[in-house]
Amino acid sequence: MLKHMKSKQDCPFQKLFPSQLEKDANFYMQHAYNQSINAWEADEVPVGAIVVFEEQIIASAYNQTRLQKDPSAHAEMIAISQASRFIGDWRLNECKLFVTKEPCPMCAGATLISRIGEVHFALEDPKMGGLGGAISLHEMPQSNHKPQVFSGTLALECKILFQSFFQLKRLANT
Question: Edge-to-edge strand order for the sheet containing 118-123?
Answer without folding.
Answer: 56-62, 48-53, 95-101, 118-123, 148-151
